From TrEMBL:
Coiled coil: none annotated. Residues 194-221, 233-311, 355-445, 471-526 are annotated as: Disordered. It comes from Drosophila grimshawi. This is Alpha-tubulin N-acetyltransferase. Residues 2-189 form the N-acetyltransferase domain.
Length: 605
């Protein structure tokens, strides 16, 4: 018996209840809260019984789960409970049924299309209660509720026990061989017009569908045999009254092969990216190979004596796989091949996947940064193509002459750039969100970080962090800072020099070139150079008081710091003159001997 941590009796006002996709007993009455509670408990019951059933049948995964039931439209689960058992009662049996549209072989080996055919999908009685008539009780209740006849029910890969059960209780012994997992019994097709076996009261004419196709002659039909045909596809076919025979054949073939083996093995597997790429890159070979496999009705008939094996074993000889699920995988390979061809290679998907060449895959080789990092295809954040990468500037970067850097007096604009760079790197390298983002009036930290990263990329800065060297004798002199290059000595400053980050290459490129780089937006998506200034960020430790002042968008790479709006820099280092920094009360030195700096800047923009 299967007992639960909760009392099942409220869910089972009667021994057998019916559960549909709403996961509620058909007898349920209650408010929203009770509904949620009942759904939760019913899900647990179904999952538990489904798991036990799978274990009992030796299946690797349950055929029945609450999730599957929720997603289904035409399936019903019957649950049998013993409310007297234990304290909370116990659930003792499960029977899942549903209707299927099937192409089936009749006794003559001809294909018939059966719509809404009753199917037994899962059946389980707890081991402790088997062979006590509970199974029959459950089955009979189901037949009564659904108004089905036992002989009209197809059974999805029945176990030996179920075959014995059906033989004993309903005299069902002689099966009609099928190429799929379903087992039918002789009499299934008899008097079909007046039975539930056909929704429309009559079965399809053998060999021909409504489209007049001899689908049994198709290699795929021979491979799959009777195969599930979706309602929607059928309606589509019926709507098309005209059209060439060839089109119809292609359509039918496509329709059949797109649909997986049905029943408990028919669940669509999630799209496999490997399969996608494999088939997309020429998976037709796989299709051709699989298509060579054929299982004719006569072949299937050879296995009629043992319906458990008949369809699958024939296929297993081809696939050389023993496990039913693996065999199913073999079948689905074919299915996926067609899916890959017909679905995943559609132009729209190709566009999305960038395989059709319409995506922003540059025709030119991807430019590489001086450090060797490839730059991603450029696309602005707005989704538009970004302007071409300034390769010219990048190509100039290696032409660095450090001697010239040290000797040459930078023009004011260049000095501004050089002086402001360290702050920018600091901001970007150490969570600039905490700086600019902390002030609601300032621009977002993201913008700053992005600008900083753009600068890093365009100017190909090899970031280096420099220790702060206190210069006590100069602290009282409010003189402008100068750009510090790796080869430069510490600058004169009214405060200890903040960590100045500048690679020789960048300094050279700015001073030597002194031209305005193009003003366009680049993000870290394009540069791929996130956190290049890691070392700087660690050294500067920007606080929420750190801001950036950029009055307007100037030349790309020129970011003015702490300059009041409207003020233009008049002398090199003017901006830094305005910068305020304080030294901590501990004399300006941290435990590590570095200056503890706090920057106070004006609002940005
Ligand atoms: C589509 C599918 O769901 S296939 C999977 C079917 N489910 C399983 O195989 C799970 C394990 N088996 C069970 O849960 C049960 O045995 C069921 C559901 C098949 C039958 O439920 P029960 O309560 O045992 O059925 P019930 O008592 O009404 O009928 C008993 C008859 O079932 C058959 N049967 C039940 N158990 C066995 C068994 N272990 N071995 C052989 N036949 C069995 C016999 O014909 C038996 O009659 P018998 O005792 O005179 O030989």
């Amino acid at each position: 018996m299967v007992d639960f941590r909760f009392d099942i009796k409220p869910l089972f006002p009667q021994p057998i209840i019916k559960v549909a996709s709403n996961l509620l007993p058909h007898t349920f009455r209650g408010d929203r809260r009770q509904c949620l509670d009942a759904t939760s408990k019913m899900s647990e019951i179904i999952d538990r019984l489904g798991h036990l059933s799978a274990v009992s049948q030796g299946l690797s995964k349950p055929v029945t789960t609450a999730q599957r039931l929720r997603m289904s439209e035409n399936q019903t689960i019957y649950l049998l409970a013993d409310t007297e058992a234990g304290h909370n009662g116990a659930v003792t049996g499960l029977l899942k049924v549903g209707t299927k549209d099937l192409y089936l072989f009749d006794e003559k080996g001809q294909t018939r299309k059966m719509e809404q055919s009753p199917s037994i999908l899962d059946f389980y009685v707890h081991e402790s209660r088997q062979r006590a008539g509970l199974g029959k009780h459950l089955y009979e209740t189901m037949l009564s509720e659904e108004q089905w006849l036992p002989i009209k029910c197809s059974v999805d890969r029945p176990s030996e026990k179920l075959l014995a059960f059906l033989g004993k209780h309903y005299g069902l012994k002689r099966t009609i061989p099928q190429a799929n997992n379903f087992v039918l019994y002789e009499g299934f097709f008899e008097d079909a017009a007046s039975q539930n076996g056909s929704r429309n009261g009559h079965a399809e004419s053998p060999q021909r569908t409504k489209n007049g196709l001899h689908i049994t002659n198709s290699p795929n039909t021979q491979l799959f045999g009777a195969t599930y045909l979706g309602d929607e596809a059928n309606k589509r076919n019926n709507r098309r009254g005209s059209g060439s025979q060839q089109q119809l054949q292609q359509q039918q073939l496509h329709q059949i092969t797109q649909i997986s083996p049905n029943g408990r093995y028919g669940a669509k597997r999630p799209t496999c990216s490997m399969a996608e790429s494999r088939h997309g890159a020429g998976g037709t070979g796989n299709i051709a190979r699989k298509s060579e496999v054929s299982l004719t009705p006569s072949q299937a008939r050879q296995h009629a004596d043992n319906p458990l094996k008949s369809p699958l074993d024939a296929l297993s000889r081809v696939n050389h796989r023993q496990d039913p699920f693996q065999r199913r995988s073999g079948l689905q390979d074919v299915d996926e091949s067609f899916l890959a061809m017909n679905t995943f290679m559609r132009p729209s998907r190709l566009r999305n996947s960038g395989l059709d060449g319409n995506l922003a895959v540059p025709s030119n080789p991807v430019p590489a940064t001086p450090t060797g990092a490839a730059v991603a295809p450029m696309r602005s954040t707005s989704g538009q193509e970004a302007p071409a990468q300034p390769q010219q500037q990048q190509q100039q970067l290696p032409q660095v002459n450090m001697a010239a850097v040290q000797q040459q007096q930078p023009p004011p604009a260049v000095a501004q750039q050089q002086q402001q760079q360290p702050i920018i790197h600091a901001g970007s390298g150490n969570s600039n969100k905490g700086g600019g983002g902390g002030n609601a009036e300032s621009s977002s930290g993201n913008d700053i970080a992005e600008i900083a990263e753009q600068l890093q990329h365009l100017q190909a800065i090899e970031i280096e962090a420099y220790e702060l060297v206190p210069e006590p004798e100069q602290e009282q002199e409010p003189e402008p800072e100068e750009v510090v290059t790796p080869a430069s000595p510490p600058r004169r400053s009214h405060t200890p020099t903040p960590p100045t980050v500048r690679s020789p290459e960048v300094a050279e490129s700015i001073i030597g070139d002194n031209r305005k780089p193009p003003a366009f937006q680049l993000s870290k998506q394009h540069t791929g150079m996130k956190n290049r200034s890691f070392g700087v960020g660690m050294a500067v430790m920007p606080t929420s008081k750190m801001e950036f002042n950029q009055q307007e968008r100037e030349d790309f790479g020129v970011v003015k710091i702490n300059r009041p709006l409207g003020n233009e820099a008049t002398t090199p280092g003017h901006d830094n003159t305005d910068a305020m920094s304080t030294v901590s009360s501990t004399g300006g030195l941290t435990d590590q001997g570095y200056n503890d700096l706090k920057f106070y800047h004006n609002k940005l923009w």
